[in-house]
Each structure stands twice: as C-alpha cells, then as structure tokens.
Specification:
Layout (H helix, E strand, L loop, with lengths): L4 E2 L8 E6 L2 E8 L4 E4 L1 H4 L7 E5 L9 E10 L13 E5 L26 E6 L14 E6 L3 H7 L10 E4 L16 E4 L2 E8 L10 E5 L4 H8 L2
Antiparallel strand pairs: 1-9, 2-3, 2-5, 3-4, 4-7, 5-6, 6-7, 8-9, 8-11, 10-13, 11-12, 12-13
Catalytic activity: Preferential cleavage: Arg-|-Xaa, Lys-|-Xaa
Keywords: Digestion, Disulfide bond, Hydrolase, Protease, Secreted, Serine protease, Signal, Zymogen
Subcellular location: Secreted
C-alpha cells in the first residue's frame, strides 16, 4: 500500500495473506468460515496443496494461524491478457474460527453500484515505495471511487477497463495498492466492492488503481459457494 497507514487486523478482520511455499504472494478477503476471495492472477498456475492463508495476524510472516487451501475456483472467463474477470475463490481445508481478528466481509448484491467519490478502504502487505515504511505489518489507505469513463480514458492505451472492473484513486495519485496487495480487499461500508487487480505503476498521477468489481460476479460467487 502506497501513502497509507499502519493498521491492525482487528480493524480489518476480513484481511488475509495468501501464501505460497510459506511466502506472502497476495492478499485475500474472508467470505465465510470456508471461503476466501482473491484475484485469479494470484492462483493461476498454483498447484493444489501449495497455498495457504494466514489469518488473524497483522503480520504476513508471523502470528495468527496458517490454514491450507483445499482447492481454488478461478472465474471461468478470467483472461490473463486483459485481466478481465480477475477473481478466484479459495476453499479452505478446515473452517475458520471467527473472533476479533477474523470476520467475514459482506458481499454486495449483483450489479450493486457505488457512487463516484465514495471513500473506499484498500489494505494489504504490498509494496509501499518508501524505505521508511515497512511492509511487514498490514497497511491501509482510503481512496475515492473513480468515474468509470475517466478510468476508461486513463487506460485507453491499455485497452481500457471492462464492466468487471472498478477504479479508485486520487487524480493526483499518492495513495494506491501496489505489488503484493493483489487479491486483497477494497471495501465500502463493510461491503467488498473490489479485489486488487492491476494498474499502471502504483499511485501514479492520472492512473487510478484498477480492481475487479465484485458486484459483477455476485451470482457466480453464490453458485460456487452457496453464500
């Protein structure tokens, strides 16, 4: 997270660290005691049994509890070139025990929209682009939801953004998700609006962060998880 603040997992109890071979690779969000949502690009090519999630910890490398991922369900329309439908659902080996440091995030309704300018909370253990800001402990930033047309124009050279994407960030840049935050939560009033997906650089002026729009695939989530 660039331009953010240090956070405690108790304040973001839905945040998890997705790990491969005991190293943090991506963020994720707790949907229920058995399911976590992350980005498809975080799980593509992962062998079963090589991934786990660390829950209930403000640190990606210690504390809390590591729970193995039993299997993952990537969105069938995920396109690694355009990064469209960048969603993956992780089914856990054993159910999570909820408490102060672990709670599910709420899901939006299918196609539910968020007003432009709404304050959204993004969090993770990704790059801070600042040597004084450690990424060992969870960080978070508040970013406004971007207008879709504005974002589409900003990324015209990259093929624009699809209806399965939602953008957030200040026009002047400065606050954003970054490498290592992928798959993590973008939340509005306790509802999971987006999944950290892609963008040009991090916190660059004129290039908001691009997130997978959870409301666009709400019915798919229900079909796969019964949630």
């Amino acid at each position: 997270i660039v331009g953010g603040y240090v956070a405690d997992v108790e304040d973001l109890p839905y945040q998890v660290s997705l790990q491969r071979h005991n190293s943090h690779i991506c963020g994720g969000s707790v949907l229920s005691d058995r399911w976590v949502m992350t980005a498809a690009h975080c799980t593509s090519g992962a062998g079963a049994g090589s991934q786990a999630v660390r829950v209930k910890s403000s640190y990606h490398a210690k504390g809390g509890e590591l729970v193995m991922v039993k299997r993952y369900v990537m969105h069938p329309k995920y396109d690694h070139r355009t990064v469209d439908y960048d969603f993956s659902l992780l089914e856990l080996e054993k159910p999570l025990q909820f408490g102060e440091a672990c709670q599910p995030v709420r899901l939006p309704e299918q196609d539910e929209d968020v007003e432009d300018g709404s304050k959204l909370l993004v969090s993770g253990w990704g790059n801070t682009l600042n040597n004084q800001e450690s990424r060992d402990k969870l960080r978070a930033a508040v970013v406004p939801k971007s207008n879709q047309e504005y974002c589409n124009k900003a990324y015209a050279a990259y093929g624009g953004v699809t209806p399965r994407m939602v953008c957030a960030g200040f026009e002047e840049g400065g606050k954003d998700a970054c490498q290592g935050d992928s798959g993590g939560p973008l939340v509005h009033d306790g509802v999971l609006v987006g999944v950290v997906s892609w963008g040009y650089g991090c916190a660059v002026k004129g290039y908001p962060g691009v997130y997978s729009r959870v409301a666009a695939v709400r019915d798919w989530v229900r079909k796969e998880t019964d949630l």
